[in-house]
């Protein structure tokens, strides 16, 4: 890699890190729900995909099953998800979003929408799509290289 490209990538890393910190700070400053972004991602996944085993959640979020246990315990205790028996494998449990979980998810979507609009509202739809495509390409390459 030439030196010019290396400098540009280093600068990009700094900008992306700053955006991530800003996003996290915005979430924390406006988060009246008391849940992390990952909690909300779990609720969203269960809302969109239906009941899932903890291992499926771990795969989707790229965390350990132990991490899923810690995260989902807080959601279970709050009444936003419930643990049920798997429909076809009675030895396995699955997690399912509750009506209260759907309500809190909708509230969080409104918060996320405000944060995203504040941070990216000045971009055109094409610019947002280009950013998404570039970052998706980078993530895919990282995944491919990790498995080599």
Report what the structure shows:
The protein has 148 residues and is mainly alpha-helical. It has one domain: Arc Repressor Mutant, subunit A (Orthogonal Bundle). It has 6 helices and 2 strands. A two-stranded antiparallel ribbon has the order 1-2. The radius of gyration is 18 Å and the shape is globular. The mean pLDDT is 89.
- Broad CATH class: Mainly Alpha
Count of discrete domains: 1
Spatial ordering of strands, largest sheet:
1-2
The CATH topology annotation reads as: Arc Repressor Mutant, subunit A
- CATH homologous superfamily descriptor: Winged helix-like DNA-binding domain superfamily/Winged helix DNA-binding domain
Order of helices and strands: HHHHEEHH
Number of helix segments?
Answer: 6
Helix content: over 70%
CATH architectural designation:
Orthogonal Bundle
Low-confidence stretches: none
Strand content: 5-15%
Number of strands: 2
């Amino acid at each position: 890699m030439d030196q010019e490209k290396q400098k540009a990538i280093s600068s990009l890393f700094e900008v992306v890190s700053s955006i991530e910190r800003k996003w996290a700070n915005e979430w924390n400053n406006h988060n009246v729900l008391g849940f992390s972004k990952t909690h909300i991602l779990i609720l969203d996944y269960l809302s969109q995909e239906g009941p899932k085993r903890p291992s499926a959640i771990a795969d989707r979020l790229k965390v350990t099953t132990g991490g899923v246990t810690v995260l989902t315990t807080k959601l279970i205790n709050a009444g936003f998800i419930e643990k049920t028996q798997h429909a076809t494998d009675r030895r396995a449990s699955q997690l399912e979003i509750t009506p209260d979980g759907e309500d809190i998810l909708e509230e969080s979507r409104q918060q996320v929408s405000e944060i995203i609009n504040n941070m990216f509202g000045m971009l055109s739809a094409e610019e947002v799509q280009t950013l998404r495509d570039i970052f998706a390409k980078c993530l895919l390459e990282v995944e491919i290289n990790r498995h080599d």
